[in-house]
Amino acid sequence: xxxxxxxxxxxxxxxxxxxxxxxxxxxxxxxxxxxxxxxxxxxxxxxxxxxxxxxxxxxxxxxxxxxxxxxxxxxxxxxxxxxxxxxxxxxxxxxxxxxxxxxxxxxxxxxxxxxxxxxxxxxxxxxxxxxxxxxxxxxxxxxxxxxxxxxxxxxxxxxxxxxxxxxxxxxxxxxxxxxxxxxxxxxxxxxxxxxxxxxxxxxxxxxxxxxxxxxxxxxxxxxxxxxxxxxxxxxxxxxxxxxxxxxxxxxxxxxxxxxxxxxxxxxxxxxxxxxxxxxxxxxxxxxxxxxxxxxxxxxxxxxxxxxxxxxxxxxxxxxxxxxxxxxxxxx
Length: 331
Prior knowledge:
Oligomer: single chain
Low-confidence stretches: 302-321, 325-331
Strand order of the largest sheet: 3-4-2-5
Radius of gyration: 31 Å
Number of domains: 2
Strand content: 5-15%
CATH class of the largest domain: Mainly Alpha
Helix content: 55-70%
Number of helices: 10
Distance between the termini: 92 Å
Structural class: alpha+beta
Largest sheet: 4 strands, antiparallel
Mean pLDDT: 78
Order of helices and strands: HEHEHEEHEHHEHHHH
CATH superfamily of the largest domain: Multidrug efflux transporter AcrB transmembrane domain
């Protein structure tokens, strides 16, 4: 079996102040970008214009996407419709007739400039509403909040409430840092990106629970040890597993980022960033939070290894033996 970074003794927790300062600056910059520009929402959230076009010869989908992007409508959905010669184009816009007509005219002009005056033929043009309405958006947010709350309850029952709070706060950090990454990179928020966000949350939470499970096992051992040392030892013991898992997932995600095309690229970006921020938060967010909670509310040592703190009753002593009585002498 391949053994990587076995029996390491790195002091990870020592750098928690630098790590927290870095992530605070990054999240603050992302929130500033978000406040200035807002989220770059796709047509699934905004609605827009639907066009169905027919070609005499099957066109190249990538070239068709470039033409629509150059017309001023980047991020449009372009999909085959029924046959290789027919495509639907969903371009973001407003639900008013003038905007729909202008969008259709701009795209049609760009297509005619490339393929000719009679190519392609526009079969229909209509307004489409957003697939993800306000109610569905609220329900999605509620689902995320409820899932974090249930996770907190599970970890409080399975481990201890301190572990649950630290894991949930670390997951909230991942969500904020990923939103900051979205706003800085100006990635388009679509249903695919929402799926990537949910995947990142689960991935990060799983990584944190694996480390915390090793912490719990080490706390139950017979040797007394400060929580700081237990955290460092647990991270080092799970480091080989973490390296193999993260490298494997990162390789698959990187291949999607390079070869999968424009539609999957935002998903790959979010997943690749999620691997980094999930690993970061499991070490430098969840660990320091657990240490802070331990200092604030020290736990009672009920583990097997903590029995040395309890006074041991004195062993019963036998009464001292009476000195031998001298034998009576008879006269």
